[in-house]
C-alpha cells in the first residue's frame, strides 16, 4: 500500500488532513523549517487543528546534530534564535565548523563576518547548511532563504557546504527509513520545485507540485524538474492520491 | 638586458598612444607617493600619449581621489580618472535604468544626476551597512522581477586592521543564486573596465599599456582586453614571478587596504618603505638607435620604461623571449 510524505509549509486544510489520517497511508512531515524547534513548530500546527506529533517530523536541525556528534564537530551557529534549543546538547566551545540555517534577521553583516572569520581561520573548514533553498514566502513577500547565504560563505571561503535537509538525498532517505518504506512506495507533496519535488524525485519517489506557498508560474517551465503532477493545493493532491489508491 | 631589448623590439611593432596607470600600489601607497612617481608622471606628460588613472574603488568618488592625489603632489585632472564607479555609471546610462544603490555614501557623488526613484536595477559595491537582511531582500525582489544586477567588483574579502572582512563578492553571489541570474561585473579585471577606460581616448587596446601592481587584476585584465601590461614591484606585487601561480588574493585591491593577505605580505608602513629602497635601480637606458627607428616611439618607450622604478615584464614579449624568439 502506498505511503505518503507531506511537506508541511502549506495552508492548513483540516478535513482532508483527517482523510489522510483515516486512510491506510503513512504520513511523515519533511520540513526544512529551521526558524523554530520541532516542538514549537508542532504546537503551532496543533493549534491549527492538526493532529501531529514531534516524532512524525523529519527536520534538518536534529539531522545536523546527528552529523555533528558522529564527526566530533563543534559548531558556530548562524541560525534563527528559535531553533538554537535544538542544539542544546551539542558542545559549542572552540568551534571547528559553522552551521548555517534560515537565520532571517540574524543574517546581519556582522554575524556573517563572524562565521566567515571562523571558517577562513580553520585548517579544515566545514560548513553545514540546513537546506539550500533560494527563497521562501512570508506574509510580507518573498525572502532570501539559507541557500543564498550558504553560497555567499562558499564563495568567500572557496569551499563547498554540506547540505543537511532538503534536497539532500540523505534527508529524504532518513525520512523513508523512519517510515520503513521504499521510495517507489512514496509520494512527496511540496511547493518548492527544486528542494521538494526535485529532491524527492532524485531519490526515486514520485512528487506533486502544489501551486501555493512559494510556487511561481515560472516553475512550470523549469528546465530540469518535471513533477509527476501539478495540483492547485494540498486538497487536490490528496484527492489525486486517494483516487489512485482506490483504483 | 636581453629581456629589455626584446621588449623594445616588440613594442616597436605597435605605437603606444595611451597609458593607463593604476593608483593604489602603483602611484601611491596609502598616504605616501611611491618614490619617484611624481617625477615619472611629469616625464610621461611630456610624451604624446593620453594618460588615464584607473582604479577599482567602491567608496571614493572622483573628487575625493583627485584631492588625495593632488595632495601627494600629482598633477592630475578629474576627467583623467576612471574608476569602477565610473564604469557602473556608464552602464546605468547605457541601459537607461534607475538603480537601487548599495554603495558607500562617499561614492554617491559619482552617481549625481542618475535617477534612483522607483528603482529597476541594483548596483552593489562594498557597503557593509547595506548588507543587512532587509536591504538584501529589497535587492533580491527587484532582481527576481527582472532588474539587472551590477557589481562594482566581486572581491571575496579584504583586510582590515582587526582581521579579514567580507567583500561584496559573497553578497553578489548569494543574490545571483537566489534569483538564478548573473551579475554584470564592471571593475578590474573585467574586459569592459579596460575598454571603457579607453573610451574617449581614440585609442585601440593594442595601442595602450596598463601599469599596475596586481598581477591578475591589472596586468592579466589589461592583456585580456588586448592591451599590454606592466607589473610594478611596489604595492601588492607578489614575489612569485609566475602570474598563474600567484596566490589569488581576491581581496579588494587598493581601496580599503593596499596590502592583501599574500605570501609577500607587507604589513606596516616602515617595512614597505624599506622594501622599496632595497629594490635595485633600473639600469640606465642604453642608446636604442638602430633598434627602433622612429624617434617618437623611442621617446615614448623610454618614458614608459622610466616611469616606475622597478618593472617586471610579464607580457607575452617575455614569454616569446624565453621561447627563443628574440635574436
UniProtKB/TrEMBL annotation, chain A:
InterPro entries xref list: HAD-like_sf, HAD-SF_hydro_IIA, HAD_sf, LHPP/HDHD2
MF-aspect GO terms: inorganic diphosphate phosphatase activity; metal ion binding; phosphatase activity
Subcellular location(s) of the protein: Cytoplasm; Nucleus
This enzyme's EC code(s): 3.6.1.1
Protein name, entry field: Phospholysine phosphohistidine inorganic pyrophosphate phosphatase
Source organism per UniProt: Apteryx owenii (Little spotted kiwi)
GO CC annotations, alphabetized: cytosol; nucleus
Stated family: Belongs to the HAD-like hydrolase superfamily.
Main location: cytoplasm
CDD domains on file: HAD_PPase
Chain's role: Phosphatase that hydrolyzes imidodiphosphate, 3-phosphohistidine and 6-phospholysine. Has broad substrate specificity and can also hydrolyze inorganic diphosphate, but with lower efficiency.
Secretion signal span: 1-22
Catalytic activity line of the entry: diphosphate + H2O = 2 phosphate + H(+)
Cofactor entry: Mg(2+)
UniProt keyword list: Cytoplasm, Hydrolase, Magnesium, Metal-binding, Nucleus, Signal
Higher taxonomy: Eukaryota, Metazoa, Chordata, Craniata, Vertebrata
UniProtKB/TrEMBL annotation, chain B:
UniProt xrefs under CDD domains: HAD_PPase
A GO MF term: phosphatase activity
Cofactor(s) the protein needs: Mg(2+)
Occurrences of domain STAS (ranges): 1-92
Transmembrane portions of the chain: none
Family classification: Belongs to the HAD-like hydrolase superfamily.
Protein name (database record): Haloacid dehalogenase-like hydrolase domain-containing protein 2
Amino acid at each position: 500500500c502506498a505511503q505518503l510524505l507531506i511537506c508541511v509549509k502549506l495552508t492548513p486544510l483540516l478535513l482532508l488532513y483527517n482523510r489522510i489520517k483515516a486512510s491506510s497511508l503513512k504520513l511523515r512531515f519533511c520540513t526544512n523549517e529551521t526558524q523554530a524547534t520541532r516542538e514549537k513548530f508542532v504546537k503551532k500546527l496543533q493549534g491549527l487543528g492538526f493532529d501531529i506529533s514531534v516524532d512524525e517530523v523529519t527536520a534538518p536541525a536534529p539531522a545536523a546534530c546527528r552529523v555533528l556528534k558522529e564527526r566530533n564537530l563543534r559548531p558556530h551557529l548562524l541560525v534563527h534564535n528559535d531553533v538554537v534549543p535544538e542544539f542544546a546538547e551539542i558542545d559549542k566551545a572552540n568551534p571547528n565548523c559553522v552551521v548555517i540555517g534560515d537565520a532571517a534577521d540574524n543574517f546581519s553583516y556582522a554575524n556573517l563576518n563572524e562565521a566567515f572569520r571562523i571558517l577562513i581561520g580553520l585548517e579544515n573548514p566545514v560548513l553545514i547548511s540546513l537546506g539550500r533553498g533560494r527563497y521562501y514566502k512570508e506574509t510580507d513577500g518573498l525572502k532570501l532563504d539559507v541557500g543564498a547565504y550558504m553560497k555567499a560563505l562558499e564563495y568567500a571561503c572557496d569551499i563547498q557546504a554540506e547540505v543537511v535537509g532538503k534536497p539532500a538525498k540523505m534527508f529524504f532517505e532518513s525520512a523513508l527509513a523512519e517510515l520503513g518504506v521504499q521510495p517507489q512506495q512514496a509520494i512527496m507533496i511540496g511547493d518548492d520545485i527544486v528542494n521538494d519535488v526535485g529532491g524527492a524525485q532524485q531519490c526515486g519517489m514520485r512528487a506533486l507540485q502544489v501551486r501555493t506557498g512559494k510556487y511561481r508560474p515560472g516553475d512550470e517551465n523549469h528546465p530540469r524538474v518535471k513533477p509527476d503532477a501539478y495540483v492547485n493545493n494540498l486538497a487536490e493532491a490528496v484527492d489525486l492520491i486517494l483516487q489512485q489508491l482506490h483504483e | 638586458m636581453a629581456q629589455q631589448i626584446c621588449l623594445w623590439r616588440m613594442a616597436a611593432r605597435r605605437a603606444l598612444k595611451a597609458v593607463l596607470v593604476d593608483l593604489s600600489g602603483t602611484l601611491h601607497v596609502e598616504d605616501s607617493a611611491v618614490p619617484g612617481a611624481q617625477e615619472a608622471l611629469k616625464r610621461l606628460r611630456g610624451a604624446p600619449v593620453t594618460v588615464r588613472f584607473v582604479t577599482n574603488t567602491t567608496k571614493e568618488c572622483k573628487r575625493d581621489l583627485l584631492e588625495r592625489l593632488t595632495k601627494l603632489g600629482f598633477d592630475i585632472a578629474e576627467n583623467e580618472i576612471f574608476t569602477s564607479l565610473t564604469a557602473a555609471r556608464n552602464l546605468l546610462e547605457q541601459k537607461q535604468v534607475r538603480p537601487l544603490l548599495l554603495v558607500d555614501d562617499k561614492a554617491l557623488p559619482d552617481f549625481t544626476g542618475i535617477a534612483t526613484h522607483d528603482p529597476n536595477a541594483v548596483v552593489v559595491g562594498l557597503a557593509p551597512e547595506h548588507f543587512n537582511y532587509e536591504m538584501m531582500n529589497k535587492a533580491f525582489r527587484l532582481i527576481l522581477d527582472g532588474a539587472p544586477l551590477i557589481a562594482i567588483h566581486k572581491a571575496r574579502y579584504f583586510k582590515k586592521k582587526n582581521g579579514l572582512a567580507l567583500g561584496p563578492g559573497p553578497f553578489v553571489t548569494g543574490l545571483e543564486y537566489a534569483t538564478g541570474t548573473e551579475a554584470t561585473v564592471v571593475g578590474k579585471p573585467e574586459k569592459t573596465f579596460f575598454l571603457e577606460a579607453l573610451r574617449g581616448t581614440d585609442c585601440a587596446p593594442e595601442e595602450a599599456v596598463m601599469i599596475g601592481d596586481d598581477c591578475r587584476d591589472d596586468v592579466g585584465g589589461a592583456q585580456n582586453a588586448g592591451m599590454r601590461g606592466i607589473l610594478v614591484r611596489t604595492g601588492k606585487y607578489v614575489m612569485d614571478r609566475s602570474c598563474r601561480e600567484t596566490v589569488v588574493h581576491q581581496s579588494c585591491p587598493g581601496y580599503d587596504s593596499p596590502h592583501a593577505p599574500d605570501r609577500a605580505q607587507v604589513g606596516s608602513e616602515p617595512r614597505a618603505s624599506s622594501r622599496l629602497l632595497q629594490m635595485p635601480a633600473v639600469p640606465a637606458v642604453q642608446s636604442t638607435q638602430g633598434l627602433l627607428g622612429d624617434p617618437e616611439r623611442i621617446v615614448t618607450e623610454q618614458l614608459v620604461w622610466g616611469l616606475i622604478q622597478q618593472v617586471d615584464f610579464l607580457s607575452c614579449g617575455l614569454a616569446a623571449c624565453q621561447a627563443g624568439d628574440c635574436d
